[in-house]
Fold this protein.
Amino acid sequence: MAQGLEVRGLRVSVQGNEILKGIDLAVEPGAVHALMGPNGSGKSTLAFAMSGHPGYLVTEGSVKLDGEELLELSPDKRARAGLFLSFQYPAAIPGVTVANFLRTARQAVRPDDLPPAKFRKLIFDQLELLDMDPAFLGRYVNDGFSGGEKKRLEMLQLAVLAPKYAVLDETDSGLDVDALRAVCESVQALRAEPQNATGFLIITHYPRILQYITPDAVHIMMDGRIVLSGGPELANRVESEGYDVIRGEVAGGVA
């Protein structure tokens, strides 16, 4: 069976406007790919389309997870298949505690695979890694959380669900250095799991997060297309030269 998260010829429209104009991308198991680009280039549209957001109409192409076509599945079944999406702006769920949310989510994706004692150990190990107070477990999901707390909680969810592939949409947005480092350590830990290494697609505008996570590949998206792909050095180019230089090279056929 084919392994990897594979996007082929993906075209997506929002309210009649074509945003993605033929995206080809493949993330291997355990690999980290970074998708960079200026605001409005279509990066978040790709994330939402892959996860099944109803406001994003796929008009052409495919998204396969280890050979299974995701576009034929409902959003919850895509999650059960092993896809995780970290939102740029996580929603609050008043009345639902973090502990109940995490247990319910794990049961939905991986029913009864961890006895209560092992699940509890997993939670508390990750709380320590992310420098989160165990009192978080009694709070309502994202209700009154700071930006850094919301992102740490998403990393806790990621660790608990242990998906095959995770799409992190602007996870570094609004984080201070300590929070960013904690998030990256969580990503590295999941990536290193020998039995179930998670593959990552990290969507970001700035290369700051890539100072802590070395990607296997970097892709530059502009105007709904991936215009350039390369290694970690491509992120350094963005940092030093900006997107306009790359846009000019691509338009001129230099890159």
